[in-house]
From TrEMBL:
Catalysed reactions, semicolon-separated: alpha-D-glucose 6-phosphate = beta-D-glucose 6-phosphate
EC number: 5.1.3.15
Active-site residue list: 141, 239
Protein name as catalogued: glucose-6-phosphate 1-epimerase
Family membership: Belongs to the glucose-6-phosphate 1-epimerase family.
A GO biological-process term: carbohydrate metabolic process
Organism: Ursidibacter maritimus
Length: 262
């Protein structure tokens, strides 16, 4: 694609990683070409970023970026190496863009395997399409930026989940409050998940479209790469996933994120 972009789009380098910066009256956003990873999105009406990025992220080639929306594909977790699949470690290409008064649309491709369309405006919609013949898993592993994890409540999750830490199914009270290391897999029967971010006076709605699971993760004090000791305090992952029900060729999964101030 031509290297001359309209003023709303800029390609810059963060340490070793090429990044697309979007500057539009409706929103500002940043996407790493490694992983086609949206790691900053701030709609005009918000005074804070909606997505969390580790303040110690080094932006080193081949290192998973800690924050934003990593695309975990074509597998989830440590079933194989690298953990969470190779898509977040590879360079994607920006194949199309469109800028209108309403916002910016970007299309990134990972060879002939997959693509992700990003519709960025006052809301944010990512639509992933799986193209390869082989069935695959996926997680749009969204890290949300919250003022204080101890004042956060997540509404509209199912009343039970699979706890990946104990490897057991367990009952969960509603709304879900986070006060320790959590790593939970819910069925995606209920959508959207609502993150009440009390001290930022806002609610983040996370709509899971064509997902089979929702993963809720915060490592708390567990040592985690590219994350500071206090990093867990301002983040929460609520992930849109296809773990048990594999993606067939041509299938799409989307996450739609919107923010309401209160
Ligand atoms: O450190 P990674 O590979 O980015 O993974 C982070 C976390 O991702 C979550 O999706 C998993 O449920 C956790 O088990 C995992 O620890």
């Amino acid at each position: 694609m031509s290297q001359s972009f309209p003023p709303e789009i800029n390609i810059v380098t963060y340490n070793q990683i090429p990044v697309v910066e979007v500057n539009h009256p409706k929103c500002q956003a940043k996407i790493s070409l490694q992983g086609a990873q949206l790691f900053s999105w701030q709609p005009a009406h918000c005074s804070q970023d909606v997505l969390w990025l580790s303040e110690v992220e080094p932006f080193v080639e081949g290192n998973a970026i800690r924050g934003g929306i990593p695309i975990c594909y074509p597998w989830f977790g440590g079933v194989k190496q690298p953990a969470h699949g190779f898509a977040r470690l590879r360079l994607w290409t920006l194949n199309q863009y469109q800028i209108t008064d309403d916002g910016v649309e970007l299309l990134f491709k990972l060879d002939n395997d997959a693509e992700i369309k990003m519709l960025l405006n006052e809301t944010c919609t990512l639509t992933f399409t799986h193209f390869s013949e082989e069935a695959a898993q996926l997680a749009l592993h969204s890290y949300f930026n919250v003022a204080d994890i101890e004042q956060v409540a997540v509404f509209n999750l199912p009343s039970d989940c699979f706890n990946s830490l104990t490897q057991q199914q367990q009952a969960v009270s509603s709304p879900r409050k986070i006060t320790e290391n959590v790593d939970e897999i819910y069925s995606a029967e209920k959508s959207p998940s609502i993150i009440a971010d009390q001290d930022n006076h806002r609610e983040i709605s996370v709509e899971h479209i064509n997902a089979s699971q929702i993963v809720v993760w915060n490592p708390w004090h567990k040592v985690t790469s590219s994350m500071s000791e206090q990093g867990y305090r301002t983040m929460l992952c609520v992930e849109t996933a296809r773990i048990s029900s594999l993606l067939a060729k041509g299938e799409q999964v989307s996450v739609k994120i919107s923010v309401k101030s209160n």
